Task: inverse folding
């Protein structure tokens, strides 16, 4: 029994250490992602399991020999580490708030309309988080509406309040999955459910995936989804003149491209005149450069990333078509006329190095005339927002404040335009 206790404790300690200090970007970092991600985002639940292990095994007589005492020490280390992970997850709200004040101004909250700020709730739904429970009673989901010609992948879901309000602010949520897997059913739900409960209408599309489809097919589909929202969104209560786009990982890459290529006819074949503009963009842990020019993954990592993109995503090889690869890179599409951005990335991301975000934000701030907010989250792994967690709850509330600020700007602009016309 003492050997079992020791083995469980060693595994727990290694997993905790990996969550706190994952491997720097390398082949090993990919393997460290999954256990680190779970240990980080399910830290409160994990703490309960660790305490139970520390109590139950000694009660069963597993303290005999050095193995039992070593196991106690390892479990103590693991518990302290998990408490640290919970603490830095709870600090995500403060990190995001500082980022919002830096990007929008210390008084940005004073510039949010009172009817919007009255809905802000800083409390964390601990019961829901501890049970990792999805779903919000006041939100309804309408599934699998067709928005384009590709029947299998051109499907879109709608999240809205059951009271069916009208002229609601609108969100387009783009799923990730490395451009080759993933579904609208798997990502962005905590954010969409939170905003829908507060009067937003959220749209979550599928899109064509590699390697069967190659870039820019994914982007074309998302433009098609935007065109569909502009044509049909009012039927579901959306204010289609105000759309914010968001998404994570590959969805973060596509979120950035949607925002940076507004109304570009090259990506709107057959619907060139459709309005595909967005008011703001919120990409999470996105890939912003396909060319590898900044070597954020190291030589081996960049070579592996390039091979993956050549085999599964891009229609050409980088050496043969550097211009085409640059056009697929948000880093190369930045202009002074781009919409506002709120870029979010985890400091401990082992799948997309945080340096991707550094270079992207640096250039956005240098070129764009609109505000750029950047929140780098200590201790956060890739895909931290996939299911309800302490960190996710804080970041969702920060995004809510950000998009409400942007919606207030939109309202005031619309009001001013009407007064000028009158």
Result:
């Amino acid at each position: 029994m003492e050997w079992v206790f020791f083995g469980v404790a060693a595994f727990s300690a290694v997993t905790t250490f990996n969550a706190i200090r994952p491997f720097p970007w390398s082949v090993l970092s990919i393997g460290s992602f999954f256990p680190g991600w779970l240990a980080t985002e399910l830290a409160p639940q994990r703490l309960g399991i660790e305490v139970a292990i520390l109590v139950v095994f000694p009660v069963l007589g597993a303290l005999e020999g050095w193995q039992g005492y070593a196991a106690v020490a390892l479990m103590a280390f693991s518990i302290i580490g998990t408490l640290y992970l919970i603490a830095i997850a709870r600090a995500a709200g403060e990190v995001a708030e500082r980022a919002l004040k830096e990007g929008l101004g210390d008084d940005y909250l004073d510039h949010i309309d009172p009817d919007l700020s009255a809905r802000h709730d800083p409390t964390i739904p601990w019961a829901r988080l501890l049970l990792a429970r999805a779903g919000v009673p006041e939100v309804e989901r309408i599934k699998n509406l067709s928005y384009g010609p590709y029947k299998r992948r051109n499907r879109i879901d709608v999240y809205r309040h059951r009271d069916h309000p009208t002229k609601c602010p609108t969100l387009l949520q783009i799923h990730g999955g490395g451009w080759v897997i993933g579904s609208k059913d798997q990502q962005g739900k905590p954010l969409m459910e939170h905003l829908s409960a507060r009067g937003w209408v959220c749209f979550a599309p599928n899109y064509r995936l590699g390697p069967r489809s190659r870039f820019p097919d994914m982007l074309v589909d998302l433009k098609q989804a935007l065109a569909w929202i502009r044509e049909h969104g009012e039927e579901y209560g959306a204010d289609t003149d105000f759309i914010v786009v968001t998404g994570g990982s590959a969805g973060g890459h596509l979120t950035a491209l949607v925002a940076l290529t507004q109304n570009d006819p090259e990506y709107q074949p057959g619907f060139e005149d459709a309005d595909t503009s967005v008011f703001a963009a919120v990409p999470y842990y996105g890939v912003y450069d396909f060319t590898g020019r900044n070597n954020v993954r190291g030589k081996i990592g960049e070579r592996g990333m390039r091979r993956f993109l050549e085999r599964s995503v891009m229609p050409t090889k980088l050496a043969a078509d550097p211009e085409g690869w640059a056009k697929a890179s948000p880093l190369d599409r930045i202009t002074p006329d781009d919409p506002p951005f709120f870029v979010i990335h985890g400091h401990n991301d082992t799948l997309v190095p945080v340096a991707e975000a550094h270079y992207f934000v640096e250039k956005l701030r240098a070129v764009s005339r609109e505000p750029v907010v950047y929140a780098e989250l200590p201790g956060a792994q890739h895909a931290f927002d996939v299911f309800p967690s302490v960190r996710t709850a804080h970041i969702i509330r920060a995004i809510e404040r950000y998009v409400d600020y942007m919606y207030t700007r939109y309202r005031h602009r619309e009001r001013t335009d009407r007064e000028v016309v009158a």
